[in-house]
Design brief:
Blueprint: H1 2-22, E1 52-65, E2 68-71, E3 76-82, E4 95-98, E5 111-113, H2 128-138, E6 145-151, E7 159-160, H3 162-167, E8 173-182, E9 191-192, E10 199-203, E11 223-227, E12 232-242, E13 250-251, H4 258-269, E14 279-290, H5 291-300
Antiparallel strand pairs: 1-2, 1-3, 1-14, 3-4, 4-7, 5-6, 6-8, 7-8, 8-9, 8-10, 9-13, 11-12, 12-14
């Protein structure tokens, strides 16, 4: 049974890789960046070295940081361009990334942290009234806390592997991030991770191999769909995961009294959190096209 599943998986991966490769050559007349092509408006497709463009919508999933779980309720966008694999300066098998033209490579979407500052989260079996009251008192504008995922390094530090994504084996994306925790008391400079000590997501569409206490989890390459007469590849319902990353202690919380507040936040969240105690599950709709296809659209519609 396993041999049959593995053979089917390899066949699917080969078909997907071949399909992605054909996008470099497919083209036909279209109006200038209309329809699905508008997703790539911020891709630097005229920049030398940019071979393909990416627009990925994280529409759901969750992150677990120490002992805090945050559900992704607001959409997050990752966009930009990337090179062919293994160009000079990139790791073997990975493509180098280029920032979005408007500078918003990773959009900032504040997600609600259950329990707010007090960290009081009702049991799943609690009544609707109990849940509503806890949310009212501990997740309001004063006591509530939001969590925002941000890039911790320049966009050029992002790495992508199309092959790994398609094969559901190995790391598909390396993403250096930091997490901002915000509320009126914590201020706007309360972060877990920084440019010096980033959280390093190594996301896969396959199965992870984390240290304990975490157990392996599995992502998905999603379903393949072609748009705009084969010139855009969409991976529908893809999921990339990582539960082997570590997180440093929070810093900058509480402004001038951060020396007092940081230990409280770290104690409540369980930071620093070693590898095997954190999780990222990102549910995505992933769109890619070639810079050649976009340039052709431009040339046909001046």
């Amino acid at each position: 049974m396993r041999k049959h599943q593995r053979k089917r998986g390899v066949t699917y991966a080969a078909m997907l890789i071949a399909a992605m490769a054909t996008l470099a050559f497919a083209s036909s007349a279209q109006a200038k960046l209309i329809g699905e092509f508008t997703k790539f408006e911020q891709c630097p497709y005229t920049t030398e070295g940019v071979f393909r463009c990416l627009y990925a919508q994280t529409t759901g999933g969750e992150t677990v940081l120490g002992n805090k779980k945050v559900t992704i309720e607001k959409e997050v966008i990752l966009q930009g361009g990337y090179t062919k694999p293994a160009v000079e300066g990139a790791e073997e098998g990975f493509s180098k990334f280029f920032a979005a033209k408007n500078g918003i490579t990773l959009s900032k979407a504040s997600q609600n942290v259950p329990g707010g500052l007090a960290g009081i989260v009702p049991d799943e079996k609690s009544s609707f009234l109990v849940k509503a009251l806890i949310k009212f008192f501990f997740e309001n504008s004063l006591t509530g806390v939001t969590s925002t995922l941000e890039l911790a390094k320049p966009a050029t530090d992002i790495r992508i592997s199309e092959n790994h994504l398609a094969e559901a084996l190995g790391v598909a994306m390396k993403l250096p991030v930091k997490i901002r925790l915000e509320n009126p008391f914590l201020g706007k400079n309360c972060y877990v991770g920084s440019s010096g000590t980033p959280i390093k997501f190594e996301l896969t569409s396959g199965t992870t191999s984390p240290p304990g206490p975490n157990s392996p989890i599995t992502g998905s390459t999603g379903e393949v769909e072609f748009l705009e007469k084969l010139r855009i590849l969409k991976l529908k319902n893809a999921e990339i995961v990582d539960n082997a990353w570590s997180a440093p202690a929070a810093t900058g919380c509480g402004g001038i009294i951060s020396f007092l507040v940081n230990p409280i936040i770290n104690g409540q969240v369980g930071l620093p959190a070693a590898a095997g105690k954190n999780t990222a599950r990102l549910k995505n709709q992933i769109y890619t096209t070639t810079s050649a296809a976009l340039r052709k659209v431009d040339s046909e519609n001046p």
